[in-house]
Design goal:
Three copies of one chain form a homotrimer. With 154 residues, chain A is an alpha+beta fold. The first copy, chain A, has a single domain, classed as 2-Layer Sandwich (60s Ribosomal Protein L30, Chain: A). Helices cover 30% and strands 28% of the residues of chain A. Chain A is built from three helices and seven strands, in the order αββββαβαββ. In chain A, the strands form two sheets. A five-stranded mixed beta sheet of chain A has the order 1-2-7-5-6, with helices on one face. In chain A, helix 2 runs parallel beside helix 3 (105-120). The longest helix of chain A is centred in the middle third of the chain and has 23 residues, at 58-80. The interface between A and B is medium-sized, with 31 and 25 residues.
Chain lengths: 154, 154, 154
């Protein structure tokens, strides 16, 4: 089964590719490693903003982390042509826009990790940090970056 | 001298492996590189929590960073079978759970860096960032992630 | 044209190499990848400190990010002998010392990204995160770490 088929099976649609918010690119491939820069919970005109633990609940933030994972996959799909070239998700760095006192950051970033494992199975199992940031660009709720390994080009 | 012998010589014991706090794994190996996700100051039932500069002093936090380094080594020891396969510590990303006004984060993370160099000698000398976070999972005092290079499997 | 010539053309001077603020080194090379640890806006006796959005404006912070990029290049120049061995800037992780309410972190870190692209052209185009930290060492305005790919040694 291709990853595209798996996404359909899960009822998931990739959002349009989000253009970088400054003078940089969404990801860079060197050898068999792809580094994906920070992505946020953006899907077309929808952006999830606000401090988690104040304007947003844990559940809101978990959904934002899931949206962010889909935005990352959209960038990779555009860069690679398809998602079947992803051999292993290596690492996720999950940053949560926290209000004072909120520290359930692992439960938030599970929204991203769960999706990656749903989509890629064992190949999606990664290592991770999930931490609370003082500020994220444009007050987005979550920002996530990722490192993955690719199969050689066919 | 093996690293196990060196740990004994230094009077250090590895804690039991800390189970990940969400849907992820403690480290991922790709080629000769191991990525270790965020670890905290946990040793069995002991966890060091609190804001550094308020509930915790610089010295408390430095001890927490040292405990965190041992927790990372415990994860690597379990994954690799022993610590002699570590060829070089490449990078440490040290995150300190700061109270407003506390910015001596390098002195805190030296608790981790000093231990790595004590244990591995020149091979333990790494590059690093040491910064102040707004929140860490479960209010732990310090969270550290690491990248290292491995020797080929024998 | 060498990178040294390009720096001269742009009217840029590398600062003296900043000594690490703890028990670590400025960068580590493994294979064809160099990991550069956290650098700050330091040029000789000049250091840009303060919270962005309170003591410092966006423009001040953007200049600090540009200074930080030059400090990173100074470390790489000292390690590599020259900057022509840099094949590709892979990733920048930009951390801004934010006052409450400031979240224009991408515009700040563009001060670094713009300079890298001015100096290296297409080879300088990287992926990135640009986020707001609760505290940076010694209250510096900006801290940036970087990953780059090198050409083989001649």
């Amino acid at each position: 089964m291709t990853i595209a088929d798996r996404l359909t099976e899960l009822g998931l649609m990739l959002p349009t590719v989000f253009p970088p918010a400054g003078n940089y690119v969404g990801c860079v491939i060197v050898g068999d490693i792809v580094h994906v820069g920070g992505h946020g919970p953006v899907d077309g005109d929808t952006v999830i903003c606000g401090k988690v633990g104040a304007e947003l609940t844990l559940e809101d933030a978990r959904r934002a982390a899931r949206m962010t994972a889909l935005s990352i996959l959209s960038t990779l799909n555009a860069e690679l042509g398809n998602l079947d070239r992803i051999r292993r998700i290596i690492k996720v760095f999950g940053m949560v826009n926290v209000a004072p006192g909120f520290n359930q950051t692992p439960a938030v970033i599970d929204g991203c990790s769960d999706l990656l494992i749903d989509v890629f199975g064992e190949r999606g199992r990664h290592t991770r940090s999930a931490v609370g940031l003082a500020a994220l660009p444009f007050d987005i709720a979550v920002e996530i970056e990722m490192i993955a390994q690719l199969w050689p080009e066919p």
